[in-house]
Amino acid sequence: MSTKVLVLGAGGAIAQHVIGFLQENKDIDLTLFARDTQQLAFLGSMSKIISGDVLNREELTNAINGQDIVYANLAGDVDKMAKVISETMTQQGVKRLLFVTCLGVYDEVAGKFGEWNNRMIGSELERYGKATRIIEKSGLDYTVVRPSWLTDKDETDYETTQKGEPFIGTEVARKAVGAYIADVILHPEKDVKASVGVNKPGVYGDKPAFY
């Protein structure tokens, strides 16, 4: 029996890589949820596509109903979205959630890189931090994903850190984050009730090289 996976924010760049890794896997049944579904048209009939707003409870409930895994890769009012998603999943009896936030939500980025990161992300960090705490208190089988500063490089190298460990890697490719997320979807027992930093191995410093 195939695993039913709902992708919230399916039009996003990381999500597109995740979809690319999973769409031909016969054991995965993808449902793609996005405000603007035009950019998903190239997928043809390979996946179910839903146009909707995460903050619309009715649309979200209809999408979550019957799924096995929810993967959320969202921007904007992520704290409000985290609340609605976790409440709706609990109501629908869906337990497994992957939710992307960002580095720095625990003040886990050390030294000069941490100071630079906090300055650059600014008030967004508070919102992502709130979303992270909502997910962690939700009672769901969550994995919070905290990527480093993102590049569009065509590479899949990544290393991970767990909550409580310092985050030192200054960058990571969106494709590599997608590879990590796809791996967790294929092995849903991995990193349950964990908050995982994802970065490129060996690239450390005071800020990303592209700044």
Automatic annotation (TrEMBL):
One Pfam family this sequence matches: NAD_binding_10
Domain NAD(P)-binding: 9-188
Superkingdom assignment: Bacteria
Name listed for the protein in its UniProt record: NAD(P)H-binding protein
